[in-house]
Structures are given as structure tokens and as C-alpha cells.
Amino acid sequence: MHKTLCYGIAVLALAAGIEGAGALTLDEVKSAGYVQGATANEVPYGYMKEDGTAAGIGPDVAIAVFKRMGVNEVNWTVTPFGTLIPGLKARRFAFAAAEQNISPERCKQVAFTEPNSSYGEGLLVKKGNPKKLTTYADIAKDPSLKVAVVSGANNIDFLRAVGVKDNQIIIIQANADALSTVQTRADAYAATELTVAKLAEGGKDVEQVKPFTDPIVNGKPVRNYGGFAFRPEDKELHDAFNKALVEFRKTDDYKKILTSYGLSEESIKAAAAKNVADLCAGK
Amino acid sequence: MMYGYEWDTSSTLAFATSILPILGIGLIVTLKAAAVGYAIALVLGLVLALLRRSRIKAVSWAVACFTEFVRDTPLLVQLFFLYYVLPDFGIVLPAFMTGALALGLQYSAYTSEVYRGGINAIPRGQWEAATALNLTRLQLYRDIIIPQMIPRIVPSLGNYLVSMLKETPVLSVVTVLDMLGLANMIGERTFDYLVPLSMVGLIFLPLTLTCSALIHFIERILPKAGIPLR
Amino acid sequence: MTWMQYLAPLLKGAQITVMISLASIVLGGILAFLAGIARISSNPILSGIAFAYIALFRGTPLLVQLFWFYYALPLIGISFDPITTGIMTLSLLTGAFGAEVVRGALLAVPLSQHEAARALNFSKSYTLWHICMPQAIIEMMPAFGNLAIQNLKDTALVSLISIADLTFQAQSLRNITLDSATVYTMTLLGYFIIALFLMFIMRFIEMKLRRGAAFPRSAHS
Q1: Most A CBs within 10 Å: which of B191, B195, B197, as the mutation test of the A interface?
Q2: CA distance A41 to A56
Q3: Beta carbons of A141 and A165 less than 8 angstroms apart
Q4: Distance (Å, rounded) from C-alpha B41 to C-alpha B2?
């Protein structure tokens, strides 16, 4: 008796679990009426507001672009930054809108769109900058200093490239933990300039390091280019979104969204000047 | 690359063997955390068990409530509490100590119950004889009660050690780089979670089995009547 | 925000926690009986599979199991949504521990009962379900009670695979308000209250079973 029960449960489980092996197309999305996106709750790139709606550079642009494609509803999943790409590959959502830096390693895993934003690095420190830090390399100079980074972010690569040791790095799970970590267990938090600016606005005992020098990696100062990530097998959806994004980038609404979150005109122009193929090749 | 060890993603087997040294570093952290946590649990549990026997009703009742509260609430939330709330009161412990403390606190609630059961299981005759012989409370506990209690409580205490070992991965959530934390980091850099996570599971299996076997061995060689402490 | 404003999101999370806990306790209970009986069956294949399942899930940490099912399994094509993954993993874990309880209780039924059943020509399955089970179930209840509370505490870990349970809501609230002390104290109290309810339910079931036992428990009491 319980043998048939076991078989039954197994069959049901398999049926429920094995997702459709086919690629997600624009038509499927349109007939479903909504598309599922993901953010990592990092202000201002993509985050959830208290009322449960998503906001930020990524979500606002994504919502506008999908509207142009005829999809009026975007549902959002919040997931830790380091799990955006694994979650995408596991088909938990259709795209990631966290303005992840388009790097050659990530390009091997996912299909990025043309860059949507460009940003530099930053450091968050205790008010008064007691350790007098101006760049990532300063942390490497003093082995007793500790710096925090978010799990999965590529700031850790920049830190390592300028000589910071592994035992100086504290990995936190979420951007939101940075405020309390900088006040207690770490001397600094390494993230993008916008992230740090927003955290400094909200926190009382912390400040953004100004002036700040971007870390020099491979001979040139680091500049990140953020884009939307799709699964490589969802080529049709990715291409349709990409086309609509490039169109949208020419409009004033696009500029308004980006500047409202603190991005400068030059950084917007810089993002438009690069193309995804070059970035994936490491140029 | 992590802690100086490169990994080799050319094949599954190569990947699995190349991350072993990194996971080994995590294993040491796991073992250390369990050791410190267990020590705290053993000592604190005994204190709680003895306080529970106090004749002052308020003390005994307060300890009973505290023990029940800690036993019935999740370790994860207790860990978050210690990690985020203590700094608000000026106590900033490193993540590892916070984790070990949380483990010790939660398990002290379990060990105090084991101690209580052990003490209650000692025949009344022993207590009465001690009173008749005019032994002080210190002599009573040190020479009569605790030596006889130890063999009875070793099995339960041993099981809790194995349980604690299995709960240490929770510490990775507050930045402690144990085996699971390192495996997650490797997964994020290489986008392959299957190998690192499976390796962690495969390392834990013999770890818990060895620990259980060790406990059974200790149970067998302990004299049943009791261990003299002097 | 005051502590009263924290109640709404925390209650939403508590609902999910209770739902996941009850679902995995029930499913885990079913698995426990299946695996426990399989473990003492004379069929070596059944017994072996049960042994492997019990050893695997009792010997590895729950968090590793959760992450494995949530992050590693999708890489070979099998992916479930977070809540299904959470309930499935918790059921498997509770089932493995429960199987040992079932096995222990069934083995504790006195030999005389088995001998009497043989003498009366009862089949093996009849003996199992109508003679051994009723006596064994009462023995299992206290241990099941403990497993239920342990299950409730384990549900907190599903917050780490993005399920919006009580712990997840507490974390979100804390991130927004930075009021760790109040938020976490309320969360701990929430779990404690749910635990008290759970203990009450398990005692009630145990009491009902004791009163309804058709067989005299002279061998045990």
C-alpha cells in the first residue's frame, strides 16, 4: 500500500518541480499578463519600498521598457545580491534588475542587455572618517583595518586587486546590514558610490568618504556599467527587451529617471557610449 | 581563489578536490565554534540546573521560565538578537564569539534539563545519608551527587554535542566563515553551488558519525557507579 | 514606527510560519511512519533505503539541506518555488527523526504481544496495524511533541531562502527601523506563543489517544 503512495508522491513531486524546458518568450509573458523580475534591495539600484512596490534605477526603467513592449505588470522578487544569477538560472524569475556590473565572468553565465547606468566606487565610514581613508588601497596599507562587502558583489575583486587581504574582509548578506556593520565591526563598507551616498544620507553616525579615488585595477580606474540580466536561452525575450531599452534610452523620461536617483549627466552619457559586447570581452 | 587556494573548475572531480583545503579551513572554524559553544552550554547549564533547585521560589521560577523560553525559540532569532542588540548596549563581540555564545545559550537550556534529570535520578538514600553524615553542600555535590550523575547524563549530553555540530552552519548568517559560509562564497564566485554544497554535506556525514561513535565509546568505558572527582 | 505598528507585518509572517510548520509536521509524520515501518521490515531493499534516508537527513545540517535543495538542485534542472522547497526539506528532516521514534516505539512492544498474535494466526500486517500500532503510538507521542517544537524552531531557517515567514519579516522590519531590540524581542515572543499552542495541541492529542486506547497498557504501566 505504501509503495503506491511513495510512487504517487514521487510522480507528483517531479511533475511540480521540473519546470518547462522551453525558453520563455515575449508571447508567453504577454499572455500571462505579467513578468517576474528580481532586485537585491540595494538603494538606489533596485529596492522595495515600505508599501511593497519596487523602485530604483533598474525597476523604474524595466517597468517603462516592458510597458513599451506591451507588458503592463511587473512582479518583483527580493533576493540576496549573490543569488541573483543563480536564481535567474533556476528560473525563479525572468530577469534581474539590480544594475549588476557587466563583467566578463558574469557574461559567461547570463545574457546582459546594453548598459543602463554607469557608476564608480565608494567607501562608507564612521562619521569623521577616523581612519582617514580615501581609497581602497588605504585599507591594504593597514592590516588591522576591516572592510565589509556584500556577498556576490565585485567590490571584493577590486579590494583584492589593490592588496587587501582576505582576513580583512567581512562578507555581509545584505546592503542594509552595512550601516550597523560600519558602526560596530568594520572600519569601512565598500560599495558603489551611489549606494554609499544613499546609506550616508540615511545614517546618523556614518559618512561617505569624500574625496574618494576609484581603485586602479589593470592600470585604469574602475568604472562599472550596470545592466539587466536575462537567461541566455530566453534569447527572443532578451532581444525584444534590449531593442526597446535602446529606444527608451533616447527619450527624456529615461534621463529623468536616472537623474532623479542621483546619476549625473556624464555618467548617463558614459553608459550610452559603451556596448555590451565590448564589456563582456573585458574592454 | 580564496585563502591562497585556487580552484580548478575543469571537471567536477577536479573542482571538488581543489576546494577541499578551503572547506578544511571552514571545518576548523566549525569545530572551534562547537567547542566553545559546548563548553558554555555545559557550564551555564549546570548553573541553571542548580539555580532551579534553589529554595527561593522567585529564583527557581525565573530560571524555569528563562529555560523554557530559550528552549522553545529558534536559534537563528536568538543569534540575530545577540548580534544586533548587544552592540546597541555597547557590547561589540566579534561575530565568532557572538555565534558561540548563541549556541552555548540555546544548548544550556537543554543541558540544564539533562542535569536536572540526572540529579533527580539519584536515589533519595544518597541525600539522606549525606545529611546523616553532616556533609556540607559543597561536599555533597562534589563527592556524592555529581560523580554519580555523570555516567547517567553522558548519552544525552553527547547527543546534544552532535546536534550542536549540525547547528553551527547557522553562524554563517552573521558573517562567520564556517564550512557553509565558504561553500556559499565559492558558489557565488563560480556560479556552481552543487559541488560546494554537496561537499559540505559529505563532510558533515562522517563528522557526525564519528562524533556519535566517540560518545558511545565514552559511554562504554565510563564506570557505571560514578566517577570520583578527587 | 512604534511596536504596535510592527505587529501587522510580524503577524503576516507568523501566518506563514504556522502554515509551513503544520504542513511539514503532518507530511513529516506520514514520512516518519513510512520510513520507520520500512526500517523494521524484513525486506532488505526497503530497510536499506529507509536506513540511507534516515542517516542522510539526521547526519547533515538542516541549513545545508535547505541551501542544497534551493540553490544546488536547480543546477541539474529540478527547481521548486521557495515555499515548496521549504516544506519539502522540513518534512524530510522531521520524517527522518520521526522514523527513529516510530522504530523505537514499535520495537518496544513486548514480545508477548507478537507471540500471542502468532498464536491467534494474525497476519503480519494485521499485527502491525491493529496490535503494535495502538500501543506504540502512545509511546511515540511525547517524542513527537518534542519533534513538533523542534520543527517550529527549524522553520525560522526558511527565511534564508526568501520565504516571508516571521523571521524574514523581523529582518525586514529591522532593516527599515534599525530597532533591533524591540523587533527581535517581539519575534521571540511570537515563536514562544506559537510553541505554547503547539505544545497544547500535542498534549491534547496525547490525552485523547490515552483515553481511547482499547488495549490495557498493563505491560508498560
Answers
A1: B191
A2: 9
A3: no
A4: 33
